[in-house]
């Protein structure tokens, strides 16, 4: 959760709790809706399929230089992406989270390491924080997963917000976004992203069984050849255990006709 509020004085944040089911621990914001998960016996792996797909930006970079890049998460959730970026990929990693209880829960229940030279958790309103000059053009992998305790629709989902996200990225940087919700409009969200980034910069997965659709947008559009993507996907699976070869069956560039 990293929502924008018109008045911080009146902002009421939901309570944070967790539940265990078998060997999986789930994070909740006071409801039954799952905000993140962790394998108890493998806390630094990515358990959920859609969260694995949030790492699809790896298909667009040379694996040798990943450790020198900067990842940023908007919305900490159960810290899955933050932990994977810092511990597994060994990247400089920044997470922006509005609710300090979520940060405490991740440190206490979900094995989120303490801040160090390559990890920083910022307690802030993401919409405001990302406009700060220090972040502009510094992020190689931006991962946006912003849902409130009802998990109904993205909290930040405007064309202006996506334009601010684009401004964070390096020239070959990518944003991945989780679009899911009982009341959200995927097509409208996709159009906002395409307007901010350019229609030729947008790629998308088919929805998961649970209804999560991960969209990727590039700062600089590119169309790597199929054999290049296949080679990178195999490297991703071999080095980091992500099922990237399977991604290529359900991941493609989007063709959009933007309406005015």
Give a brief rundown of this model.
With 260 residues, this protein is an alpha/beta fold.
Structure notes:
The protein is an alpha/beta fold and 260 residues long. 27% of the residues lie in helices and 24% in strands. The chain contains 8 helices and 11 strands. The protein has helices at residues 49-53, 80-88, 100-109, 126-129, 159-168, 186-197, 226-240, 244-247, and strands spanning 17-21, 24-28, 34-39, 70-74, 92-97, 119-123, 139-144, 169-179, 202-205, 213-218, 251-253. Strands 6-5-4-7-8-10-9-11 form an 8-stranded mixed β-sheet, with helices on both faces. Helix 5 (159-168) crosses helix 6 (186-197). The radius of gyration is 17 Å and the shape is globular. It starts with 16 loop residues before the first strand and ends in a 7-residue tail after the last strand.
Strand order of the largest sheet: 6-5-4-7-8-10-9-11
- As a percent range, the share of strand residues is 15-25%
* Rg: 17 Å
- Which outline best applies? globular
H/E series: EEEHEHEHEHEHEHEEHHE
What is the count of helical runs?
Answer: 8
Task: Record the SSE blueprint.
Blueprint: E1 17-21, E2 24-28, E3 34-39, H1 49-53, E4 70-74, H2 80-88, E5 92-97, H3 100-109, E6 119-123, H4 126-129, E7 139-144, H5 159-168, E8 169-179, H6 186-197, E9 202-205, E10 213-218, H7 226-240, H8 244-247, E11 251-253
Parallel strand pairs: 4-5, 4-7, 5-6, 7-8
Antiparallel strand pairs: 1-2, 2-3, 8-10, 9-10, 9-11
Helix pairs in contact: 5-6
């Amino acid at each position: 959760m990293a929502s924008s509020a018109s008045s911080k004085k009146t902002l009421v944040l939901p309570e944070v709790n967790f539940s265990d089911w078998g060997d999986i621990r789930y994070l909740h914001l006071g409801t039954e809706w799952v905000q993140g998960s962790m394998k108890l016996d493998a806390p630094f792996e990515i358990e959920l399929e859609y969260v694995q797909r949030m790492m699809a930006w790896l298909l667009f970079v040379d694996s040798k230089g990943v450790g020198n890049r900067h990842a940023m998460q908007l919305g900490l959730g159960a810290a899955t992406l933050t932990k994977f970026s810092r511990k597994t990929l060994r990247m400089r990693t920044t997470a922006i989270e509005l609710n300090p209880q979520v940060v405490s829960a991740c440190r206490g229940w979900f094995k989120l390491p303490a801040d160090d030279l390559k990890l920083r958790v910022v307690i802030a309103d993401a919409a405001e924080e990302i406009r700060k000059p220090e972040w502009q053009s510094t992020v190689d992998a931006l991962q946006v997963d912003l849902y409130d305790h009802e998990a109904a629709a993205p909290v930040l989902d405007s064309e202006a917000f996506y334009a601010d996200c684009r401004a964070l990225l390096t020239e070959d940087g990518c944003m991945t976004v989780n679009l899911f919700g009982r009341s959200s409009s995927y097509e409208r969200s996709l159009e906002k992203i395409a307007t901010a980034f350019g229609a030729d910069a947008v790629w998308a997965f088919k929805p998961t069984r649970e209804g999560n659709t991960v969209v990727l947008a590039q700062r600089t559009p590119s169309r790597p050849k199929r054999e290049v993507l296949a080679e990178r996907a195999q490297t991703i699976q071999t080095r980091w255990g992500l099922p990237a070869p399977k991604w290529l069956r359900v991941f493609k560039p989007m063709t959009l006709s933007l309406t005015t």
